[in-house]
Amino acid sequence: MNDHSSETLEAARAAAPARSTGTAPNESTQFATQDTLLTPRFYTTDFKAIDQVDVSPLRKEWDTLMAEFEADTNTDHFQRPAEMSGTNYSNLPPALYEEFSQFLISSLTSEFSGCVLYAEIRKKVKNPDMRTLFGYMARDESRHAGFINQWLKDFGIGVDLGFLTKAKKYTFFKPKYVYYATYLSEKIGYARYIAIYRQIERHPELRFHPIFLWFERWCNDEFRHGEAFALMMRAQPSLLRGLNLYWIRFFQLAVYATMFVRDHTRPEMHKALGLDPTTYGLQVFGITSRIAEQVFPVTLDHTHPAFLTGLQRLCEIQQAVELAKARGGLLSGLRRIGLAAQAGLTFARLYFLPVVRKDLPDDIRLAPSW
């Protein structure tokens, strides 16, 4: 395989607006560099451990998946059509403009985070299976990030990805944590985008921006990435039993809660799409949990009444945190500490709710059929 990873990483960086040396990053780039509980992070890991991953027990499934990556059905998909050039699609009502632009910046940061991690793994390992896989995935994520940046330029707020690479803090995750978290991120990304795409299919009058036209094939990339991590975990059975089941539960809850709270900070965007954030969130959880049964012996019972109650409580706490931040001062600082403790307690209660246990299926692979 050609070394796609370094080429595509540079291509994504090149899609960012030029910035003179020594000048401050624009507002969108500063927003993308933030590290909070709700913002995407950049990760690094133990590359030597990933170099030792042996997928030979699943060689047939692995080679089939690599052939899908190599086919590269989306090679020309993420391009802005000529007929859309020169048209500014950022003319939106102020509240929708703010939420949607933040959605795009957050999505870009998440895509580029994956690109950076995958490209670094591709660079650091010698294992041919891992080099091939992570090269392909870096290629895909680079395209996604660059494509979002094309649309952000309408808003005059394209993110400087070169600056982001240097300024963003990196969090170290053990490989197994990378597998759990990234598998879930890729699959929930699929579920979120396909749910929005199906809504737009049913109600084309609600499509307030052209980017939604790309969501179906876009989320199929995310689905395929999740399939790769599913095979990697199934090839290492110890990751899916014993004490690791507690980590699996933790990462599921962390990903679900983050998505739910973050989406409830964008009421205008969901209103414009004709979606209720709570109903949409539960729909996404249903799709993601059904998919996750391919690799996780335990999944969250998102239908449990206390599950929704807990997530709604986290939303209330987040709103209170934002109010305290806006007020500032010592008392507000103390208030935020108390709210953080409440959030931790609520998360713990959610963690210990009953879970769904199922035997893993013999047929690992799934198709993006939602």
Mean pLDDT: 88
Q: Into how many domains do the coordinates divide?
A: 1
Task: Please identify, by name, the CATH architecture.
Answer: Orthogonal Bundle
Element-by-element helix/strand order: HHEHHHHHEHHHHHEHHE
Question: What structural class do the secondary elements suggest?
Answer: mainly alpha
- The CATH topology: Ribonucleotide Reductase, subunit A
Major sheet summary line:
2 strands, parallel
Shape: globular
- Strand-residue fraction? under 5%
Strand order of the largest sheet: 1-2
**Any low-confidence stretches, pLDDT <50, length ≥5?**
4-8, 11-22
Cα distance spanning the termini: 31 Å
Give the arrangement of secondary structure elements.
Elements: H1 4-14, H2 27-33, E1 42-44, H3 47-51, H4 59-71, H5 94-124, H6 128-152, H7 161-167, E2 170-172, H8 175-202, H9 215-234, H10 244-263, H11 267-272, H12 277-292, E3 298-300, H13 305-327, H14 330-351, E4 355-357
Walkthrough of the structure:
By secondary structure, the protein is mostly helical. It has one domain (4-17, 26-81, 92-298): Orthogonal Bundle (Ribonucleotide Reductase, subunit A). It contains 14 helices and four strands. The chain has helices at 4-14, 27-33, 47-51, 59-71, 94-124, 128-152, 161-167, 175-202, 215-234, 244-263, 267-272, 277-292, 305-327, 330-351; strands spanning 42-44, 170-172, 298-300, 355-357. The strands form two sheets. It has a two-stranded parallel sheet with strand order 1-2. A two-stranded antiparallel sheet has the order 3-4. The longest helix has 31 residues, at 94-124.
